[in-house]
Structures are given as C-alpha cells and as structure tokens.
C-alpha cells in the first residue's frame, strides 16, 4: 500500500513516538488524586500544572514544528524525548506546589517535539502530491498506531501506582520516553530514503529526471515566511485552527478528570484507568477509519470533521443524562474513542491539501497550539469548576456546547490548494 518497507517502518515508528508521548500525557490525570491527597493541596494546583503543560505544549509545537521542517525529525524527537524524561524525573522529587508548577509544565513544553505535529509532518513528507490517497491512509495509520499509547500507557501507569508510591511510578513512566530515540532514527532514515524510492507508482522512475523535477518544484515553492502570510489570510485555515481548539478542550478534560470523576461517583478506581484504555482501543479503529474516509472522500474532509464534532456533542449530552455505572462509563469511553483523535488525520490532511507538506509541521504546529489552548481550559476549568461547585456537571454541558460550535465552524471549510502569486515581494493567495 505504501510503496516500500522503509516507508512503512517510518510510519510505524512515527505512530509509536506519538503514541508514547500521547499516552504519557493521558496518564498524568491518574496522578492527580494521589499527588493532591499526598501533598494536601486541592485539585486545582495540579490541574493548573497540567493545564500549563498542555498550553506550553501547544505554543512550543510551533517551534518544534519549524525545527523539524528545517533540521529533521531525528534532532527534534531526540531532543524532546530526552527533555520529557528529565522533566518527569525531576517532578518525581517535587515537594511543593511551586515545584510542580515548574516541572510538569516543562514536560509539556518538551512534549511538543514528540507530538503528532512533528510525526505527522515527517510522515506526510514521505509522499508526493500525486499520492494524496496514500498520504491520507498513512496519516490515519500513524494516528491509529499513536492511539495505542492510550491503550498501553495508562494501565501500566495505574499498575505502577498500585505497586509503588507515586514518586517511583512517575520515574518509571518517564523511562518510557527513551524508547523513542531509536524510533526517531528509523523515521529519519525513512525520510532520507524517500528520494531513492523508485516504486512510488509501481513503475521505474529515472532518478536524474526526478531530481530535476523536484529541484524545479522547490524553486517555485514559497518559503516559510510567505507560506505563513498566506495561511493567516486564508479563511479555511483560520476556521480549521479555531475548530481544533475544541478538540483539545474535549480530550484533555476527559483524560485529566474522568478517572477522578468516576471515583467521586463511587466507582472503583480501576474504572477510570480502564476507561482511558478503552478510549484508546476505540481510537485505533476510529483514526484508521477516519484516514480511509479522508482518502475515499478527499473533497469532504470538512464535512467529516463537522460530523465528528457534532457526534461528540450528542455523546456528551447522552452521558450526562444516563445513570452512571461501570458499563455506561466503558461504553461511553469506547464510542468516544471512535471520535477521539479521528479529527487529527482529517485536519492534517486538509493542511496538506491546502498547502505543501514542506512546511506541514509548522502549519500543524500552529493549529496544534490552538488545540493545546483548548486543552489548557479543559484541564484547568475542570479542576476550577470542581473546587468551586463540588461537581463536574457544568463542564460536561460545556463539552456539549463546544462540540456544536466546532461542527458549525468546520462545515464551510474548503480544501482547495492555495496558489501563491508573487507581486513586488508580496503574496496573495488564490484557489486553483
């Protein structure tokens, strides 16, 4: 399907890197109650630390994306994995609210280097513009593999919390980031091998002619500055960025507060951790399906996104209206998993359709910044609302409203390629 084993190995490693990073972020909510109870402060303290982490994760994703576009995935992911390990290790020694406010947010800032913005940008560049269907499937597969991180990491973290105090458990979770180092090397090698892959269309391609065509193409492509100017003036891109805010608002509220919510409602502690894993299982199916649908209906990615957000809103409304039990929580988790990161391959695919994949990591980094801004409010408002009202009810209904708004925002988006016109050093964008 993807042309060569080297390319496929790059896709797999990109998924593993994203999965470990996303799984570790999703596991931080499991430490919310143990750390808060042990340290004797309210849930808002660690909720704010996690919220700052996701916020910094978004802002720094622009930097990490640009670094990836300029210097490659090996330097970017290697640096990020090392820094995430260091931050979690230091957090395990924290003994005050101020210490958590430094170490946990630092983990978020470093985590942008191992996020989907970097890995999906690297995977997208493994395919040319004549391989849109293959690219969409590859982005869906990468995201789907990344979803396994939510299946694997939270139960491991929960088991570590049962076996050890939260401090050694946090250190052991941090060690998992070092697995990303060899994965980044394989993904980088796949990118370098892309120009030597002669089996893109199933026919032999003359390397000399291909290089001449690529050089000519690159000479006509805009630089990063002009691409960013065009992006900020392109309404569909603005709508996509705004809509991605809601995705972060949804997923980080749930991943941070669902375990505590389940315990507050009298359910066993295993339910919350299991629910996060069930979300991951559903996400594996959902993201792969999303990528396949994006390949089958390339002109309707916006409508697919609109349907996904509206479905989330309906699901949250239903969850607020039915009695809570182990079965309803796990059923909710599986259906939510189908919709969880299904937005990512479609969003990334729209960006590749609108602009060249050359600066895909930077453009996705900007969108991801909006996503993480939403994540900040999802994590922080969840803790703030609980401490103020003693309940998460208001937050669940905010989830419903946000889903409806996101559905409306995505409906008018069009995915035509932006054409850059150079006039006296300025740039305008017209659709082909």
From TrEMBL:
Membrane topology: Multi-pass membrane protein
Protein keywords: Membrane, Transmembrane, Transmembrane helix
Annotated stretches, region: Disordered: 198-222
InterPro entries the UniProt entry points to: MFS, MFS_dom, MFS_trans_sf, Proton-linked_MCT
Main location group: membrane
Domain Major facilitator superfamily (MFS) profile: 7-418
One term under GO cellular component: membrane
Recorded GO MF terms: transmembrane transporter activity
Transmembrane segments: 12-33, 45-66, 73-94, 106-127, 139-157, 169-188, 237-258, 270-295, 307-324, 330-351, 363-382, 394-413
Composition-biased stretches (Acidic residues): 207-221
Gene3D superfamilies in the cross-refs: MFS general substrate transporter like domains (1.20.1250.20)
Source taxon at top rank: Eukaryota
Subcellular location: Membrane
Pfam families: MFS_1
Protein name: Major facilitator superfamily (MFS) profile domain-containing protein
């Amino acid at each position: 399907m993807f042309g060569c084993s080297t390319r496929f190995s790059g896709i797999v490693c990109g998924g593993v890197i994203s999965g470990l990073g996303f799984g570790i972020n999703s596991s931080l909510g499991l430490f919310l109650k143990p750390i808060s109870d042990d340290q004797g402060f309210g849930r808002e303290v660690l909720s704010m630390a996690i919220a700052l982490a996701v916020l910094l994760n978004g802002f720094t994703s622009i930097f990490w994306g640009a670094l990836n576009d300029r210097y490659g995935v090996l330097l970017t992911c290697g640096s990020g994995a090392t820094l995430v390990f260091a931050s979690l290790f230091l957090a395990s020694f924290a003994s005050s609210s101020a210490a958590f406010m430094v170490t946990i947010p630092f983990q978020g800032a470093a985590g942008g280097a191992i996020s989907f913005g970097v890995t999906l940008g690297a995977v997208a560049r493994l395919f040319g513009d004549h391989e849109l269907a293959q690219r969409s499937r590859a982005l869906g597969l990468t995201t789907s593999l990344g979803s396994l991180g939510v299946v694997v990491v939270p139960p491991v973290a929960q088991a570590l919390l049962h076996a050890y105090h939260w401090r050694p458990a946090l250190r052991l979770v941090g060690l998992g980031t070092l697995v990303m180092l060899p994965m980044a090397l394989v993904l980088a090698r796949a990118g370098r091998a892309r120009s030597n892959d002669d089996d893109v269309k199933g026919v032999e391609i003359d390397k000399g002619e291909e290089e001449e065509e690529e050089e000519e193409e690159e000479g006509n492509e805009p630089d990063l500055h002009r691409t960013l100017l065009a992006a900020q003036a392109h309404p569909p891109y603005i709508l996509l960025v705004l809509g991605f805010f809601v995705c972060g608002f949804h997923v980080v509220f749930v991943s941070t507060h669902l375990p505590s919510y389940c315990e507050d409602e009298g359910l066993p502690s295993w339910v919350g951790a299991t629910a996060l894993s069930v979300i991951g299982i559903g996400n594996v199916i959902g993201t792969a399906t999303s990528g396949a649908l994006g390949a089958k209906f390339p002109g309707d990615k916006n409508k697919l996104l609109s349907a996904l957000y509206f479905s989330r809103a309906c699901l949250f409304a239903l969850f607020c209206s039915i009695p809570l039990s182990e079965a309803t929580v796990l059923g909710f988790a599986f259906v939510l998993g189908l919709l969880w990161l299904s937005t990512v391959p479609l969003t990334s695919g729209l960006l590749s359709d609108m602009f060249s994949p050359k600066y895909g990591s930077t453009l996705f980094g900007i969108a991801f910044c909006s996503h993480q801004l939403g994540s900040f409010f999802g994590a922080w408002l969840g803790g703030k609302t609980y401490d103020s009202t003693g309940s998460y009810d208001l937050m669940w209904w905010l989830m419903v409203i946000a889903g409806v708004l996101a559905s409306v925002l995505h409906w008018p988006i069009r995915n035509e390629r932006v054409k850059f016109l150079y006039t006296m050093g300025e740039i305008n964008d017209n659709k082909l």
